[in-house]
Amino acid sequence: MKKVISRVVLFVLIGFLAVCFGCGSNKLTREKAKEMIVKKFEYPREVRGKLVKGGVRAHEDSHIIGAFRAFEKEKLVKFRQKQQETMPFITISDTVLTEEGRKYAFELDGGGGIGVLLCKEQFVGITGITFPEGKNQARVEWTYKYEDITPFAKHWSTKAKELGSFSAYADPKKNFNTELKKKNIKMVLYDDGWRIAE
Question: What residue ranges do the domains of the chain occupy?
Answer without folding.
Answer: 28-196
